Amino acid sequence: MTSERPVENVWDYPRPPSIEASDEHIVVTFGGRVVADCTQSYRVCETSHPPSYYLPVTAFAEGVLRPVEGSTFCEWKGAASYFDLVGPDRFIPAGAWTYPHPTSRFAPLVEHVAIYPGKVDECTIDGEVVQAQEGDFYGGWITSRVIGPFKGAPGTLSW
Q1: What pLDDT, in 10s, does the model give residues 12-48?
Q2: Nearest of 155, 152, 151 to residue 48 by alpha carbon
Q3: What is the number of H-type helices and E-type strands within the chain?
Q4: Strand ranges, E, within 23-157
C-alpha cells in the first residue's frame, strides 16, 4: 500500500523538479474498464505540486490514446504533445500528455504518458484511490503519501 512508503511534503520537493523511477502499482480506469496498468513508471516531483506520474505508453490499452494537434512548453521538460483519451462511449480532449523530445534531464520520459487523474473514472496507486490536484492545468496525483498545501486551488497560482 502507498501508506507503507514515507510521507512526503510537497514543499520539500525541488525546483527544478526531480524525476525518479517508481515501482508503485498504477491502475487507470476509464469508460468502465482498465485502460492502463503498470508497476514501472516515473514520478516528477516539483515544489508545491503533488507528483505527476508518467506511465509507459505500452501500459495503455490499444486505441485509448489518440494524438492531437498542438503543444505546450515546460521550462524544465521541453515541448509537450497531447492525446485525447478515447473510451467506448466518450472521449476526453487532451486528457494525457507526453514529451516526445524532452530535455536531457528528463530523457527517461520518452515513450511515457501522463494523464489528468480527475478526467478519468479512477486512478489507483498501490490500491489507493488518487485524488486529482485542483486546477485544470496541473496533473498531480494526491495520495496519503503526499501532504500539502498544493498549488492549483483558487488563489494559489502565484505561489
Answers
A1: 999 999 999 999 999 999 999 999 999 999 999 999 9
A2: 151
A3: 0, 15
A4: 26-30, 33-38, 41-45, 52-56, 65-74, 78-86, 91-98, 112-115, 122-125, 128-129, 131-132, 141-142, 146-147
Q: Which three cell numbers stand for residue 86?
A: 478515447
User: How many Å apart are CA 56 and CA 147, to the nearest integer?
Assistant: 26
Which residues make Cβ contacts (< 8 Å) with residue 71, sequence separation at least 6?
Answer: 79, 80, 81, 82
The residues pairing with 18 across neighbouring beta strands, listed in sequence order, are 45
Residue-wise pLDDT for 51-83, tens only, equals: 999 999 999 999 999 999 999 999 999 999 999
pTM given for the model: 0.94
Question: How far is it, in rounded angstroms, from Cα 25 to Cα 118?
Answer: 18
On the question of pLDDT at 1 being above 70, the answer is no
User: CA-CA distance, 18 to 27, in Å (whole number)?
Assistant: 23
How open is the CA angle 56-114-38, to the nearest 5 degrees? 40
116, 95 in Cβ contact below 8 A? yes
Helix, strand, or coil (residue 29): strand
